[in-house]
Design a protein that fits this description.
This protein has five helices and ten strands. By secondary structure, the protein is of the alpha+beta class. The protein has one domain (4-236): Pseudouridine synthase (2-Layer Sandwich), CATH 3.30.2350.
């Protein structure tokens, strides 16, 4: 597995993380041997600092700082939502053309990692802008209730950063992301595996926009799509 560098200067480096790659070592995944943090460090020959999260099954932009001061600036910028993130997702059904979802989420707790966390913590605010950019109806009866199946290509702009926010918000709207084994629809996931040989979560962190912590220049980083994405777009006649 190789990494693509999307942006680099003396303070920052951004890579295009492949789906399935962990950001850093985790005792929950002891069998893994490849991690984005270590791979980026080896690629550029210097230590890197994590400043935000990207779920393992999600592909796309992963930003690292190259020094502690920059890391503090960026971590604070992410926490205060001064950094704009844009995602691309393939979802079940015909998603609304435009929607702003303000739907609070209770924290998802891991049975082991979060065993000391408060299970009664109230739901936290979670906000996402959703825009549908393409739709398709396929002549396959994935659900026994319908003779065909509908899918949408959506752009997602999260205004908060709750755990699995985009996946949970789309599931709440009954438009789960294809390939989501935690919050999605197993029938449609299986259809994409068997019909299109697509076994990944179809969620991609496509664009990151922010002010450089030192120069204050506007930085816009875009991440190209992988082969799974490009094949789906070609087959469905979509453009992203």
């Amino acid at each position: 597995m190789s990494l693509q560098i999307l942006y680099r200067d003396e303070h920052l480096v951004a890579i295009n993380k492949p789906a399935g790659l962990l950001v850093h070592r985790s005792w929950l995944d002891k069998g893994e041997t490849q991690f984005a943090m270590q791979m980026t460090r080896d690629l550029i020959g210097q230590h890197v600092y994590t400043v935000h999260r990207l779920d393992r099954p999600t592909s796309g932009i992963l930003l690292f700082a190259l020094d502690p001061e920059t890391a503090r600036h960026l971590t604070d910028a992410f926490a205060s939502h001064r950094i704009q993130k844009e995602y691309l997702a393939l979802v079940r059904g015909w998603a609304p053309l435009q929607q702003f979802l303000d739907y609070s989420l209770k924290e998802e707790l891991d049975r082991i990692a979060d065993k000391f966390a408060d299970p009664d913590k109230p739901a936290q605010p979670a906000k996402t802008h959703i825009r549908c950019v393409a739709r398709i109806e396929l002549p396959f009866a994935v659900s026994p209730k319908h003779p065909s199946s509908r899918y949408s290509l959506v752009k997602l702009l999260p205004l908060t950063g709750r755990k699995h926010q985009l996946r949970r918000h789309l599931a709440h709207l009954r438009h789960p992301i294809v390939g989501d084994t935690s919050h999605g629809d197993g029938r449609h996931n299986r259809f994409f595996r068997e019909q299109f040989e697509c076994a990944r979560l179809m969620l991609h962190h496509q664009r990151l926009s922010f002010r450089h912590p030192h120069t204050h220049e506007l930085i816009v980083i875009d991440a190209p799509l992988d082969d799974h994405w490009n094949r789906r777009l070609h087959e469905f006649g979509w453009s992203a």
